[in-house]
User: What shape does this take?
Amino acid sequence: MSTFRIDAQNNITAFGSTEQIEGSGGETFTNRQELAAIAEKWPAARLVDIWNSLPGVAPVQRFTSRQVALTRIWNSIQGLDSRAEAPKRRAPAKKRSAGTKTPRAVRKRVGGPSKTARVIALLQRPQGATLQAIMRATGWQTHSVRGFISGQLKKKLGLTVRSSMRDGERVYSIKRRS
Assistant: This one.
């Protein structure tokens, strides 16, 4: 069974036995429970730093819980070779400033057509779309649908959206362009 030592710079070293460990530069542990015990007093940010310094892992900004962090760290360090040197630290990933966005061309659409496209398709049907149908298609509440129709469709896109009452329900439609 390997013994692991973690130093103040978050470097984890694996040793084949406790006799190989020299000096007291850090804390040692041999199983996940011991790791959890010493990590109790660490801030969550240190767990993120430890994870991000491990070789071959995808960097994270935070963990959902302390237990998830410890489990992932423990599972990752099981592959460390006790004969190898301490893993090389990777340079931290550059953080994007809060004001910059990924260019539109680079952003990927997830989950099919956008909600705007879905709403427009509903409104272009010959019978139009009820407020309830739009709410089901988008997952929005009534005030969000009304605001979207007013702001996005009418003002930004310049579409002519008609509103009428049919059988006691609000129905919206867009006049099809020829």
Residues 3-77 form one domain. Residues 82-88 have pLDDT under 50 and may be disordered.
